[in-house]
């Protein structure tokens, strides 16, 4: 009898010790995640040097609250509303729209990743699609031009192509603008072909746990330690598979453009500018972003290879290389390798406006 009691005490003691260990680790994880979750590169950047830090921190907190649907499209959960960012009932950033296109309207969807979504924009109107809308609102074209922000954080051709075909086509658009390239370059080839390995599976497990227990932070710390120096989508950037990724990128968008043409929808594929592309001399404030990792120096070179094959997208209506967009701008534009602030978004939108205006006028 005493032996059984002893075993029970030992078991209970062991359980209590484990609980204490888990509790201590969770306290550490909570502190760690507070620092991680509330950090945004743009808060300390020259890009927003004229905006009070408390406002920037508020923006940062809002962007971290945005929830994504974990499906093959990486859509955004609908009906999320904050001071600086609003997601409408269809999961698009910006004002409400109708599924049915209004009469006398030229409807444009802008597709891309966080740079299209506007992950550091001070408002919905100050994203690339937002500024583009404002440009068209200033001219009389004899019809209404509607620009819809279909950008999603982390999106790339593997998620965007089916998103366009399965979701956006139902909105009867006149033009699909694809503005990206950076994520396709950076995301590992294994993610492109659905062979993400143990690290990718770990990322998915932690993500799913967060959906079930959003306040439990220990899995995030374990993931970050296990994936130290790895990109979010598993694996370090591997230049040896670049040609294969470019082939997949071309194949995906060619298929989308063929489908769009059958529906009388025009397509415009654009390669975005990032830090180090074009002939622009980067500022002292921007240099640490490019030199933080030797791989970062190779990413702009790799992105240019995507721009070089744009002419091979023979089924797409229009193509454009925007990697030189900032060549004549000497001010600080980027706060990391590819994200810009409001001013950068406005400059990009002006360039896109020049390209798209003739398309609308022809229509």
Automatic annotation (TrEMBL):
CDD domains: SGNH_hydrolase (cd00229). InterPro entries: Ester_Hydrolysis_Enzymes, GDSL, SGNH_hydro_sf. Pfam families: Lipase_GDSL (PF00657). SUPFAM superfamilies: SGNH hydrolase (SSF52266). One of its GO terms (molecular function) is phosphatidylcholine lysophospholipase activity. The chain crosses the membrane at residues 12-32. Keywords: Membrane, Transmembrane, Transmembrane helix. This is SGNH hydrolase-type esterase domain-containing protein.
């Amino acid at each position: 009898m005493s032996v059984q009691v002893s075993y029970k005490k030992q078991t209970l003691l062991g359980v209590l010790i484990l609980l204490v260990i888990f509790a201590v680790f969770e306290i550490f994880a909570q502190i760690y995640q507070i620092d991680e979750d509330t950090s945004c590169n743009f808060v300390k950047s020259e890009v927003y040097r004229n905006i009070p830090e408390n406002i920037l921190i508020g923006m940062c907190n809002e962007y971290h609250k945005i929830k994504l649907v974990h499906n093959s499209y990486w859509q955004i959960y609908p009906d999320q509303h904050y001071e600086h960012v609003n997601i409408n009932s269809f999961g698009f950033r910006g004002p409400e729209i109708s599924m049915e296109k209004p009469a006398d309207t030229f409807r444009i969807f802008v597709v891309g990743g966080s740079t299209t979504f506007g992950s550091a924009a001070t408002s919905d109107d100050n994203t690339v699609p937002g500024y583009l809308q404002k440009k068209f609102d200033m001219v009389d074209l004899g019809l209404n031009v509607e620009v819809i922000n279909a950008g999603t954080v982390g999106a790339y051709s593997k998620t965007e192509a089916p998103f366009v075909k399965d979701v956006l086509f139902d909105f009867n658009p006149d033009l699909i603008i694809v503005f990206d390239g950076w994520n396709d370059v950076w995301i590992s080839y294994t993610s492109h072909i659905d062979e993400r390995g143990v690290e990718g599976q770990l990322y998915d497990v932690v993500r799913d746990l967060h959906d079930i227990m959003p306040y439990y932070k220990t899995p995030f710390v374990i993931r970050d330690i296990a994936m130290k120096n790895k990109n979010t989508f598993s694996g370090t950037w591997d230049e040896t598979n670049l040609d294969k990724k470019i082939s997949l990128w071309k194949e995906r968008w060619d298929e989308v453009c063929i489908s769009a043409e059958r529906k009388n929808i025009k397509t415009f594929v654009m390669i975005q500018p990032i830090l180090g592309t074009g002939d622009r001399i980067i500022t002292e404030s921007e240099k640490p972003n490019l030199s933080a990792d030797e791989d970062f120096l190779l990413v702009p070179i790799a992105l240019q290879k995507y721009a070089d094959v744009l002419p091979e997208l023979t089924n797409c209506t229009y193509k454009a290389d925007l990697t030189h967009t900032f060549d004549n701008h000497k001010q600080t534009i980027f706060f990391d390798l590819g994200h810009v602030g409001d001013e950068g978004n406005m400059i990009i939108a002006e360039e896109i406006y020049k390209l798209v205006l003739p398309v609308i006028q022809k229509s």
